Amino acid sequence: MNSRTDSSLSMPPVIVLVRPQLGENIGKAARAMLNFGLTQLRLVAPRDGWPNPAAGPAAAGADMVLERAAVFNSVAEAVADCNHVHATTVRKRGISKPVLDPVGAAMRIHQDKGRHAILFGPERSGLETDDVALARTIITIPINPQFGSLNLAQAVILLVYEWSKTQHLAQPTLTQELPPAPQEELDGLIAQLEAMLEPAGYFSPYSREVATRRTLHTVLTRPGWNHLEVRTMRGVLTTLARQRRNDESRS
Amino acid sequence: MNSRTDSSLSMPPVIVLVRPQLGENIGKAARAMLNFGLTQLRLVAPRDGWPNPAAGPAAAGADMVLERAAVFNSVAEAVADCNHVHATTVRKRGISKPVLDPVGAAMRIHQDKGRHAILFGPERSGLETDDVALARTIITIPINPQFGSLNLAQAVILLVYEWSKTQHLAQPTLTQELPPAPQEELDGLIAQLEAMLEPAGYFSPYSREVATRRTLHTVLTRPGWNHLEVRTMRGVLTTLARQRRNDESRS
């Protein structure tokens, strides 16, 4: 994957299907994408492997999207080169993140420089809390509260349709702001901090470890730090860690 | 059929599937309708008769819409009680009628009193010219000109989604976010970190100290962390500092 971030606005978003169950839905999602001019599809651990013979017929001619689809083992790998990660959910989550509706999400993708990824969860259950923790924002489609069962390809088409609308808007004035660092740089920062916190007992008791790590991810994902800011924070951590080693060597 | 027109605005539109071919698409259209609170489905001469055993499973719980579906022999009969008839088409027609996009159509349905019907044609061919001739307006979804094959249920969901937005016009924006912490809490966090970095030599050489502190302030101000997030970060720092003291006391 090329992790260079484009300097122009309105890079088309990447659609990431996380653990999709049915090949038919993958094909329909590809068709929906191409209906509005999107071609970058990524699959995380598709249940029935890949390629899937049910996808092609459902794509109804959008084979080009399926042929280019990239497959990953984890969400983290799938979004490593993305500057902005958005998670689609229907239900409310115990995570405090900014929530956008499809219009707000489309405007954000239109305005914020860099590569955006939109995560969609498996048909039956939606995204897991850990997947959502990786994202900076949550996208929720305002839907009939008495009937919230939205088909995967239908969710995809609503978001790409809203995105396509922004392509006809005049471009906003260029801000000089750098885009957020690619997700893999942020992951490196978080890993460095976790490695320092672990021996200090930050993650004990064991029963709360998962929740504690998730909270830390959320707090550090929120800033949208750019490449230079991530480097600054890594410098801070390196300084603190080096001092510990100095202390130890003096002891 | 009750042909009385309601005097209030925003009567929910009637969805009319004209000669639909696949039961599965009828079920998916019903599901899409109920997703956004619509329940009035009408079928004109469905190819495989009605009821269709493939519709139920595809409706994924929207059975109520299928059970209430009314079947007609002709488009004229299906829209006899409707005050406004809109025909969805992808291709341009040789008929001169007002053309609306989904947003324009939703506004029209929201504003023009009476019952609105939206006609959708068969999967393979779309509406025939005679069907379109019955309509007062044409609705066209602006789509990739290189890939205009839009699934029937996808076309339905885009229009009912746009309609649903007009129902929420008065609703506030979706955000459950906590506000950023008061500045003094952020300052407390920054002071704690600076106090840890100082003895570690982070701010030397002296000539660059002001710039280095400024950078750190900028990086930590950017997130807009809320009260809970600031507390989390202070906990992280306290853990790292405590470990240092433990190291020192062991020495």
Question: Strands, helices and their partners?
Answer:
The structure is a homodimer of 251-residue chains.
Chain A: E1 14-18, H1 23-35, E2 41-44, H2 55-59, H3 63-68, E3 70-72, H4 75-78, E4 84-88, E5 99-100, H5 102-111, E6 116-120, H6 129-133, E7 137-139, H7 152-166, H8 183-197, H9 209-221, H10 227-250
Parallel strand pairs in A: 1-2, 1-6, 2-3, 4-6, 4-7, 5-7
Domain tRNA/rRNA methyltransferase SpoU type (chains A, B): 14-161
InterPro entries (chains A, B): Alpha/beta_knot_MTases, RNA_MeTrfase_TrmJ/LasT, SpoU_MeTrfase, tRNA_m1G_MTases_N
Keywords (chains A, B): Methyltransferase, S-adenosyl-L-methionine, Transferase
SSE sequence of chain A, one letter per element: EHEHHEHEEHEHEHHHH
Oligomer state of the chains in this structure:
homodimer
Residues in helices of chain A, as a percent range = 40-55%
Stretches of chain A where pLDDT is under 50 for at least 5 consecutive residues are 1-8
Q: Main β-sheet of chain A: number of strands, strand sense, barrel status?
A: 7 strands, parallel
CATH topology of the largest domain in chain A: Alpha/beta knot
Strand content of chain A: 5-15%
GO molecular function, one term (chains A, B): methyltransferase activity
InterPro entries (chains A, B): Alpha/beta_knot_MTases, RNA_MeTrfase_TrmJ/LasT, SpoU_MeTrfase, tRNA_m1G_MTases_N
Protein name (chains A, B): RNA methyltransferase
Keywords (chains A, B): Methyltransferase, S-adenosyl-L-methionine, Transferase
